[in-house]
């Protein structure tokens, strides 16, 4: 999208802890694109009151087709199987003349456990994003292959080119790609040290007896393990580079977030007579 922020439209407006809200396009896209598993919600049938939530692999991207058409609207591409219920519902929605299947996509990353003086003020350092929109099936072959490459490289950068490609006919037939046009998006980010109520900060007995701080949290990638039929002696450079670089980046972010100022200082209460 051309704008640098998603508009706040009511349905995507953050109401709780507004000071931690973000509508920044780059921030939201980065959260989505660095989250290995996205949670996709949809209502399968009006007669079923509860929505279905599926863990899926996906990425935000701007396809060459859209770029050529002059569009700057990034879409969320989701990888799935041809006969899955989600794909059938998206196909049926288009056949009914609708703009697509309504979806909600959520991504969350935990960066630290924030331990405070009281249980009530414990917190997480975290990053989260929520997307709303309408999904349709990618029918164009070139865009489909582009999306498959995009999603594969989200697992490990440059992985697509370092495999047996292009996908054969059976693989293309069994794989479906959904693309969701974004109608609204928002994010929330909490970074920083613990924060407690003034009433507890004034109690020397509590300060002297309760440990406070942040436990940094980050996923660590392990040493690559060869598969049972692997014949390549050395771990490929693109895999080694990804593991080493990603571990360093994740650890650095979590520790830096643990030392940043708290996101909001609670306003001081007025003293009596002031």
From TrEMBL:
Classification via Pfam families: Pyridox_ox_2
InterPro entries documented for this protein: Pyridox_Oxase-rel, Split_barrel_FMN-bd
Superkingdom of this protein's organism: Eukaryota
Entries under PANTHER family matching the protein: 5-NITROIMIDAZOLE ANTIBIOTICS RESISTANCE PROTEIN, NIMA-FAMILY-RELATED PROTEIN-RELATED, FLAVIN-NUCLEOTIDE-BINDING PROTEIN
Protein name: Flavin-nucleotide-binding protein
Species of provenance: Amniculicola lignicola CBS 123094
């Amino acid at each position: 999208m051309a704008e640098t922020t998603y508009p706040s439209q009511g349905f995507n407006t953050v109401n709780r802890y507004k000071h931690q809200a973000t509508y920044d396009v780059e921030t939201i896209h980065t959260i989505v694109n660095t989250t290995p598993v996205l949670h996709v919600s949809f209502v399968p049938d009006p007669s079923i009151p509860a929505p279905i939530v599926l863990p899926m692999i996906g990425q935000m991207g701007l396809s060459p087709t859209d770029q050529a058409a002059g569009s700057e609207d990034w879409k969320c591409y989701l990888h799935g199987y041809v006969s899955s219920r989600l794909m059938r519902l998206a196909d049926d929605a288009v056949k009914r003349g609708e703009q697509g299947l309504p979806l909600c996509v959520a991504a969350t990353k935990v960066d630290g456990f924030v331990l405070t003086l009281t249980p009530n003020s414990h917190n997480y350092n975290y990053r989260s994003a929520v997307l709303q929109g309408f999904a349709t099936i990618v029918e164009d072959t070139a865009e489909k292959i582009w999306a498959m490459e995009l999603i594969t490289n989200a697992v490990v950068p440059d992985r697509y080119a370092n495999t047996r490609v292009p996908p054969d006919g059976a693989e293309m037939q069994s794989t479906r790609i959904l693309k969701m046009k974004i109608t609204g998006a928002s994010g929330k980010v909490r970074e920083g040290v613990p924060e407690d109520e003034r009433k507890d900060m004034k109690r020397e007995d509590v300060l002297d007896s309760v440990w406070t701080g942040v436990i940094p949290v980050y996923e660590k990638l392990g040493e690559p393990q060869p598969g049972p039929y692997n014949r390549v002696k050395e771990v490929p450079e693109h895999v080694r580079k990804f593991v080493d670089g990603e571990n360093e980046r994740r650890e650095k972010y979590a520790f830096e977030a643990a030392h940043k100022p708290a996101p909001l200082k609670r306003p001081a209460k007025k003293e009596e007579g002031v």
